[in-house]
Amino acid sequence: MLLLLVPVGLATVIGLLVMWPDGEPTRAQQVAATYLPPGTTYPDGRVVSVETYDCGDPSGAAAECARAVAEVLDGDGAGDYVQVELDAVVVTNGVEEGDTLVLTRDPATEGGPSYAFYDYERDVPIITLAVAFALVVGLVARWRGLASLVGLAFAFLVLLQFVIPGLLTDDSPVLVSLVGSAAIMFVVLYLAHGFSARTTTALVGTLFGLALVAIMGSVAVATARLTGLTSEETTTLNNFDPTLSFSGLVLAGIVVAGLGVLNDVTITQASAIWQLHEVDSSMTWKELYTRGMAVGRDHIASTVYTIVFAYAGAALPLLLLFELYDQPGWVVLTSSALAEEVIRTLVGAIALVLAVPVTTAAGAFFAKAADTEAGAATERRLVSLRARFSR
């Protein structure tokens, strides 16, 4: 296993060192900075009064907007009372006295800083859920669960400090996503599951799946001529920097999206093989593989549903729009917007399915190899003992 993983690990480290962003603003970041007035900040504001008024259009459509007075809670204007306009969408979702809102503060306007509504403040529900998640994971999975949380923090560090900034540079999106994903898997798997042949088996299967996603994804994106410019977000990115490879971003998204599912499948398969081997070490490689695949087929059947429904849920607003359009079903399915999700799902599912037999075969091979090595070590000890007593 070391003959395989050491070169991959070295390549990953070299890739991180070579492609690590230098911290200089990219073209997209420089353009994006011009869209906001310099010095713009986002202080919290507590609503002290709300006055609603009719803001319906001349056609007679009813709408209710509001003017709110808020006390600025932090930043340069802390303690000031400011008035902000709230549109009909905000009023419909509810704004009451005592609510905390996130405001924008532009210090460069004539007559002093100006404030506007930016978003709702969501610190309490997000922090509460995060703490509850950590407690549940720690209580149920104990130290291994806490180790997985540390691994999750590392994964976000790599994504935020390497992958996302790297995708805004001139480097290949595919290489950036592959190197970042491999780095995440090397650390996360061993941190959560410990240094063992079982974990190494899962890592081999995961790296195989990632490589397969990259290869199949490249072919699929090229042959399907996916432009990547199918959403408001990518259109905005194109305005910031039209030189970005948006088809490459599609492929990078496929690679990153496959991380969690591949990790889940491969570690489960590796664990199943080693549990079978511990129960009956006399089983041959073929028997281990056959019984492991019996577990793997069940896992494949359930995980494929997981992938499809996860992408369907993410694309639900898009599917609702297509439901409203009077177009043939096949035209909708093969349209650029939906084709991205379809190809993303199919590529991820194929890599997932093929990673199962590869992980199972590797696990069975390494389990039997461990038996052979253990037997050889035992034989060496016996020979040593015979030699000692024969003196």
TrEMBL record:
Keywords: Membrane, Transmembrane, Transmembrane helix. InterPro entries: YibE_F. Pfam families: YibE_F. The keyword Transmembrane applies. The chain crosses the membrane at residues 124-141, 148-168, 174-192, 204-224, 244-262, 300-322, 342-367. It comes from the Bacteria. This is Putative membrane protein. It comes from Blastococcus saxobsidens.
